[in-house]
């Protein structure tokens, strides 16, 4: 028989899980599409506007998927990045990588950098056919690395590249990794979901709580990556598309010296580097959100001149 303390913990966990499920199911009104990549279904979310000025495809980071990251709905607060782009006349799209959100793992249980880039290229091809135009690619954290690798290998469908929270050093090489035996499938935690919010006062506690609930509902199990040495192919000199580098002032994962070396190496001369004052790794959901959106749109409109 369960003791009272254990029973209370289990009951609280079930309540939190139910709340998270309800939050994730009710809040976002993004339209879900399924795009097939080598026989595997990828979830792609759409929030479009009539006669858009352009199209932006978002790729999430290492742990959490598109809806909590890019379409968080909090009553009385404007936090959705997709809504923010819509308000300025741009259609927003977001994809869930393998093992994230509404995209299941494949039979291997893993995703890899090469596979993630091929999946993004498939979605970009689908978008170009659907919209009749090239897409602006916007990646956050690990997603910025996926976006860069995709832009290096499949630049033909990309109008521009926006890298936010870029967490790697172009001069650091990852040792070659043998295939691991089995995915870990680690349970995600509330502490991990709240860990990127580090600047006091930049986001309300209520919004953090809603984010944590939505993130755990969408991604209760941490996705597993393999063959990380494939990231060694990242090379600014291979970037031939216009590129915007966005950096939060207090982002612990975005190293200024590494950003400088990447920026200098980027081959396309149409490039900008913007630092978001007061921003951390989650600036897209915090008070610098408006400046982050403006910096993105200003860059896209600069390319139109």
Short description:
The protein is of the alpha/beta class and 305 residues long.
Q: How would you describe this protein?
A:
There is one protein chain. It contains 9 helices and 8 strands. With 305 residues, the protein is an alpha/beta fold. It has one domain: Rossmann fold, CATH 3.40.50. Strands 1-2-4-3-5-6-7-8 form an 8-stranded mixed beta sheet, sandwiched between helices. α4 packs across α5. The radius of gyration is 19 Å and the shape is globular. The termini are far apart. The N terminus is likely disordered.
The CATH class label is Alpha Beta
What Rg do the Cα atoms give?
19 Å
Mean pLDDT: 93
CATH 2nd-level architecture: 3-Layer(aba) Sandwich
Ranges where pLDDT stays below 50 over 5 or more residues in a row are 1-12, 17-26
Element-level helix/strand string: HEEEHHEHEHEHHEHEH
Helix content: 25-40%
Order of adjacent strands in the largest pleated sheet: 1-2-4-3-5-6-7-8
Structural class: alpha/beta
CATH superfamily: Alpha/Beta hydrolase fold, catalytic domain
Report the sheet with the most strands, covering strand number, pairing sense and barrel closure: 8 strands, mixed
Number of strands: 8
Shape summary:
globular
Number of domains: 1
Q: What is the rounded distance between the termini?
A: 71 Å
Given the structure, what is the number of helices?
Answer: 9
Q: Which range does the strand content fall in?
A: 15-25%
CATH-derived topology: Rossmann fold
């Amino acid at each position: 028989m369960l003791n009272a303390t254990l029973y209370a913990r289990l009951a609280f966990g079930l309540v939190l899980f139910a709340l998270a499920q309800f939050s994730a199911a009710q809040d976002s009104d993004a339209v879900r599409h399924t795009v097939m990549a080598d026989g595997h279904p990828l979830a792609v979310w759409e929030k479009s506007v009539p006669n858009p000025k352009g199209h932006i495809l978002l790729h999430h980071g290492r742990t959490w998927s598109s809806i909590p990251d890019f379409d968080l709905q909090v009553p009385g607060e404007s936090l959705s990045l997709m809504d923010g782009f819509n308000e300025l006349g741009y259609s927003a799209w977001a994809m869930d990588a393998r093992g994230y959100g509404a995209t299941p793992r494949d039979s291997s249980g893993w995703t890899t950098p090469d596979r993630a880039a091929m999946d993004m290229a498939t979605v970009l091809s689908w978008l170009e056919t659907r919209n009749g135009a090239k897409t602006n690619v916007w990646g956050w954290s690990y997603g910025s690395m996926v976006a860069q690798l995709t832009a290096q290998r499949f630049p033909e469908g990309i109008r521009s590249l926006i890298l936010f929270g870029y967490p790697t050093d172009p001069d650091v090489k990852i040792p070659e990794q043998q295939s691991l035996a089995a995915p870990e499938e680690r349970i995600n935690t509330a502490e991990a979901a709240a860990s990127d919010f580090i600047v006091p006062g930049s986001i309300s506690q209520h919004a953090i709580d809603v984010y944590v609930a939505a993130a755990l509902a969408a991604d209760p199990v941490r996705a597993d990556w393999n063959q990380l040495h494939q990231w060694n192919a990242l090379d600014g000199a291979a970037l031939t598309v216009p590129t915007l580098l966005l950096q939060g002032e207090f982002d612990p994962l975005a190293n200024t010296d590494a950003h400088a070396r990447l920026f200098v190496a980027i081959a396309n001369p149409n490039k900008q580097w913007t630092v978001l004052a007061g921003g951390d790794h989650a600036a897209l959901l915090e008070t610098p959100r408006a400046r982050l959106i403006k910096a993105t749109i200003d860059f896209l409109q600069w390319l139109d001149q």
